[in-house]
Design brief:
heterodimer, A: mainly alpha, 5 helices, about 0% strand, disordered C terminus, B: mainly alpha, globular
Chain lengths: ~100, ~180
């Protein structure tokens, strides 16, 4: 007879966030199926999360503004003191090329 | 150094998304990303290969945001009215309405709940990584996450009082 570790709130949270190994996942799944109220809550949380992930996934394809890409192309854009950041803010993205 | 710049570039879409979901306003989000990139590039030599570039960038972005909020006395996370609902959602997705509801509810989450939800549930970071970024113990990350889910649910269930709670807290919209 195997001894199973008791299911905790952390397990349930990890179940919702998809971060359990398959074995533990199955255990939590069984545990939930005997607790309809908890199961309903988990289902709802999963739906919320899935909806936000879909929304978030759609954003990944957004075109990246040139002002951001320009920063990565510009080798001279260095400095530790935060001055450059302020200058960027003040002068706008076109100033990126003159920093350094 | 080139490969690090490439790694930075690879993370750019996620960094923009993180900022966007955190503050709502797309152009303010990109301002934050821009400042974050300037800092990251200036400190690229300090980034250690093999460590998590994403977590490093998120940490910088968060510092930039909080510095900006302090400096400008901007209300945290702005704008309850401007949710993410203008983001195009492809029509093929089922339950489009539900996405909108969740989106609006998310925009109304308490800032601390928003952050933790984004890091764990959307970006899929470890609890430990999220704890480092947020500078709180792992236990706090977990408790905030469950409160975030509950708050999200309650906003979805009580959708008619939209915006009201934030207004009651005296939070103003972005100028």
């Amino acid at each position: 007879m195997t001894i199973s570790t008791p299911i905790t709130d952390d397990d349930v949270e990890a179940f919702v966030s998809d971060r359990l190994d398959p074995e533990r996942r199955a255990e939590v799944d069984r545990w939930l199926s005997a607790r309809p109220e908890r199961l309903a809550e988990v289902r709802l949380f999963q739906e919320q999360q899935a909806a936000l992930r879909r929304l978030a996934d759609d954003m990944l394809g957004d075109p990246i503004p040139d002002r951001l890409l320009a920063l990565l192309r510009d080798e001279r854009c260095g400095g530790e003191d935060g001055q450059n950041i302020n200058r960027l803010r003040r002068d706008g993205p076109d100033a990126a090329g003159t920093i350094g | 150094m080139e490969s690090r710049r490439q790694a930075l570039l690879d993370e750019l879409p996620r960094l923009r998304r993180y900022a966007r979901m955190l503050v709502g306003d797309p152009s303010y989000a990109d301002d934050l990303v821009q400042d974050c990139l300037v800092r990251a590039i200036a400190n690229l030599h300090r980034w250690q290969d093999g460590t998590n570039m994403r977590a490093w960038l998120f940490t910088i972005l968060r510092n930039v945001l909080y510095n900006d909020l302090r400096r400008a006395r901007r209300s945290p996370f702005l704008d309850a009215g401007e949710s993410l609902e203008t983001v195009p959602v492809s029509a093929t997705q089922e339950s489009r309405m539900r996405v909108m509801d969740v989106d609006r509810a998310f925009a109304r989450l308490a800032p601390a709940h928003k952050e933790v939800f984004l890091l764990i549930a959307v970006e899929g970071l470890d609890y430990e990584e999220a704890a480092r970024i947020l500078d709180v113990p792992v236990g706090t990350v977990k408790s905030r996450l469950s409160r975030a889910r509950a708050e999200l649910r309650s906003h979805i269930e009580n959708d008619d009082d939209a915006v009201q709670p934030l207004a009651e807290q005296g939070l103003t919209t972005r100028p």
